[in-house]
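Recall that a protein's primary structure is simply its ordered list of amino acids. Everything else, from secondary elements to tertiary packing, is in principle encoded there. The following example makes that idea concrete.
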Amino acid sequence: MTNTLSAEKKSSIVKILSFLCPLIYFASYMTRKNYSIVMADIIISEGISNADASLAATLSLISYGVGQIISGILGDKFKPQNIILCGLTLTTAMNLAMPLTDDFTLRSIIWFINGFAQSMLWPPLVRIMAETMDSATYNKVCTNVNVAGISGTVLLYITASAIWIKYYNWKYVFFSSALVSGVIAIIWVIGFSKATKGTGLFTSVKGNKKDASEKSTLSLKALLMSGFILIAVAIICQGALRDGITDWVPTFIINTFSLESGSAILKSVIIPVFSVISVKLVGIINGKFVKDEVKAGTITFFAGALGCLLLLFIYRENQYVTLFLAAVITCFMHGVNYFLICIVPARFEKYNAVSTMSGIINSLTYVGSAAATYGFGAISDSFGWNTVLVSWVIVAVTGTLTGLLAIKPWKKFVTE
């Protein structure tokens, strides 16, 4: 943050941004997770297969992942607040358009565009936080950002369930999500302008005018020696489990226990509710005890692997036990997400590459998410849910092992 600013002004800026940044992620989840939550309703109302229904979600995740890299680079070169506003505006438009068509192909294209719109939010947001907040505040706000996103998911589950029970029409969910993101876009413009007015923060375009001190100094050799490739594999595995379980649990318990859609969606709200609690706990633990985020992420992944193994053997016994274990596993994956996606990118501030690396790292999450969203649906159609649960175990073990191998090189990279 600009050194000429008074302590009072700096405090005011941080206070406003600490409110605005979580609000952005709340809007992001409201306009991104809604399709997956109503996917079971779409399958029932339109009579399509699990794999077919997941196509739009998979395309969205692909564009989201690729867009993360593009937005990450742009976020280090241009005004991050403008990139965020563009993303919010575009996702609002796509959520309004989604329920207005019954054409399956057009619907998939709309959601593909929505994925790219969503990718314009996280990387510039990380840059804004990293450049205006000290380490302790950054970690705290990161926790709140994650909690806000998951809280948006909780609201979606409740909204989708209520709408389905009352109207049997999933389309209203998209209209309500668009309304939320549109209002938050207005709040963002007003709030950010008020926070940074007269400060010189994020008012100039970097582009080709970056001076030597602002150019990225991160070399490919340093990145490879850091163990980043291993961390990348762990991140992909985390994304596959976190979003794969969250997206498919409503359909999973409908198929396994013959539940009504509205009831299954409402019961599945336990997953994001537990996730909110877990992210808050992880944030507290990180602030007080964690010195090595990769080691912490690996331990958390191992706990998730044990949960996947237990679920495989007992999932047929009771729907509530199944939901509880799915929620616990997802909690652990949100913990891994916090350590590897929120904390790791901030380590690249000394290389002037926070937004770029944030975009790359977050894109890896959605490589896993895209593979899981389509892959788990296809596996369930062809081989049944037992095979899906076996694949969850394999993914969790892979993430644990790669995280374990990355601990030593990452520690060396951070302390150099």
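Residues 135-167 form the longest helix (33 residues). Confidence is low (pLDDT under 50) at residues 206-213.
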